[in-house]
Amino acid sequence: MTHDAGLYSAGPEAALDLVRETSEEVSTLLVVGHNPTMAYLAHLLDDGEGDDGATSEMLARGYPTAAAAVFAVGGSWADLGAGGARLEAFHVARG
User: Which fold has domain 6-92?
Assistant: First the structure.
């Protein structure tokens, strides 16, 4: 597990840069942060081809506290860009 203090003050593009630094050996990545960065990052990554229910749920709820967006990334972390991930699920821990 790695903690990068730079994520705390990062905007969405800087957060995406941190994700791009992930080793190719990593198959699952959990990014935990604060809004508005996490909401912007989730919308930035979404390719619009994922689960329609998850997409509409994420848009309707506005990415509230304790929300988690689950994405599938088909390529390398280093090449990840805007629209480069498919939204598989969206969960909110509290209603």
Answer: Rossmann fold (3.40.50)
For 77, which DSSP code? S
Dihedral sign computed on CA atoms, order 70, 16, 86, 65: positive
Q: How far apart are CA 91 and CA 89, in angstroms?
A: 7
Cis, bond preceding 36 (omega within 30 deg of 0): yes
pLDDT tens, N- to C-terminus, the chain (95 residues): 777 778 888 899 999 999 999 999 999 999 999 889 999 999 999 999 998 888 888 877 888 888 999 999 999 999 999 999 999 999 988 75
Counting Cα atoms < 13 Å in the Cβ hemisphere of 33 gives 27
Task: Please tell me the pTM assigned to this model.
Answer: 0.86
**Domain positions in the chain:** 6-92
